[in-house]
Amino acid sequence: MTPARMAQLHRAAFLRERPWSAEEFSELAKNRFVRCFDHASGFALTRTLAGESELLTLAVDPGHQGKGIGQQLLKNWLDSLPTDAETAFLEVASDNQPAINLYQKFKFIEAGRRAAYYSRSNGTKADAIVMRRAVTLGHGGVSHGKMPESG
Ligand SMILES: CC(=O)SCCNC(=O)CCNC(=O)[C@H](O)C(C)(C)COP(=O)(O)OP(=O)(O)OC[C@H]1O[C@@H](n2cnc3c(N)ncnc32)[C@H](O)[C@@H]1OP(=O)(O)O
């Protein structure tokens, strides 16, 4: 997926946060530890090194959310991890319940919090929650359903 398409999807999916630019995605893609898992309507960007893998960002086109794409991307990431990767982690806003539900479904649990990290346009604040799981946990029977389109 091109950096321009990543930026487009990121802007569409993250309505409350600063969108990442095509230049930022282009820079990230140069890092040999960074990998993109993509789908026609979404992508997951990850960084894996020193026994840890981080989900840097995950975005699904709003018109295609709720169809199992986010779940499939998350599964593709976890399935790809080398056996020497010990933990997978990510950061999510405390007011982003759909994403928290998705990560809990994949057995991520809260490992830490940065209080009032995100400021919302209505004046409220949200915590940043760091969630972790052991790579070797498996998916506990999480099914990813049908993927009508991929690539
Ligand atoms: C590290 C980070 O990037 S954190 C931020 C993640 N990205 C964002 O929040 C951007 C905006 N949101 C999105 O792009 C998407 O909604 C995502 C990535 C959070 C989820 O992707 P989707 O393709 O819509 O989710 P998918 O259809 O695979 O649903 C999988 C699970 O997520 C949870 N979920 C997804 N949408 C919702 C929702 N609207 N309400 C509650 N739970 C939800 C559920 O647990 C669902 O499982 P279920 O269908 O068995 O109930």
Automatic annotation (TrEMBL):
InterPro entries to which the protein is assigned, alphabetical: Acyl_CoA_acyltransferase, GNAT_dom, MshD_Acetyltransferase
PROSITE patterns for the chain: GNAT
This protein's UniProt keywords: Transferase
Keyword Transferase found: yes
Signal sequence extent: none
A Pfam family recorded for this sequence: Acetyltransf_1
One term of GO molecular function: protein-N-terminal-alanine acetyltransferase activity
Keyword Transit peptide in annotation: no
Name the UniProt record assigns to this protein: Alanine acetyltransferase
Organism field: Sulfitobacter mediterraneus
